[in-house]
TrEMBL record:
This is ABC transporter permease subunit. The keyword Membrane applies. Pfam families: BPD_transp_1. It is a multi-pass membrane protein. The keyword Metal-binding does not apply. Its main location: membrane. Keywords: Cell membrane, Membrane, Transmembrane, Transmembrane helix, Transport. GO terms for molecular function: amine transmembrane transporter activity; carnitine transmembrane transporter activity. PANTHER family: GLYCINE BETAINE/PROLINE BETAINE TRANSPORT SYSTEM PERMEASE PROTEIN PROW, GLYCINE BETAINE_PROLINE BETAINE TRANSPORT SYSTEM PERMEASE PROTEIN PROW. The lineage of its organism: Bacteria, Pseudomonadati, Pseudomonadota, Alphaproteobacteria, Rhodobacterales.
Amino acid sequence: MFPESLNFSIRKPINHFVDMLVTNYGSTFRAISDAILQVLLLIEGVLRGTPWWVVIIAFMVLAWLGTRRVVLTIGVGIMLLVVGMLGLWDQTMQTLALMTMATLISVVIGIPLGILAAKFRSVQRIILPVLDVMQTMPSFVYLIPALMLFGLGKVPAVLATIIYAVPPLIRLTDLGIRQVDHEVVEASTAFGGSPMRILFGTELPLAMPTIMAGLNQTIMMALSMVVVASMIGARGLGETVLNGIQTLDVGKGLEAGIGIVILAIVLDRITQGFGKPRRFK
């Protein structure tokens, strides 16, 4: 048995820190919450208010632009049609809005941090352990402070999703820029390119396939959080799965699960397509 005299707890200082944040910066967190919620509701309103057939056509256009594959493009339309026929269209649009918001914020955070990590080794040394914690810490753990700071609803669900989903984008942005051929960078420098011009004109375009792979993983991980997010007030397919669990309705849970799988396949194929050279088939 481990000696009790060597035991220590970090519970009290962490709880005190979170209480201090709520007490002293509650208005700031409310302002952030309101801003995120307004944008999220706007995205959700657009998706839910757009005719279903327009949404399907839009996804088919994206699939065609990303892959140039006729069969895949038609398959995307058929899969989304199945979602609607299962009676899950509205829930799917809610889930898509949550994912879109989380992905946009992840891109705003992840790509700049990935660039900094690639450019400065000291930043990389700090970021990598933090990313390890973010990816390995159970999602329920950071749901608790998110609830305390932002309350129940869509906003803490978005933030919890970001924490879980942003690490792959940071890691692969860092990796993609580091893998750019040094001779290409040296040639750009020799022609008088400034660091910013080299970054945006040479390094980022060459690293784009790797960055898109990171974005793909971020979207997939965000989608895997939909059921957890439903436990703190997020709507959508995750809520339907949760209701199926609570009522032991296997069919209801399976239908929502199929909707999640279809959405994952559609988004995965589209983002993979944009990360690869375009081919006509």
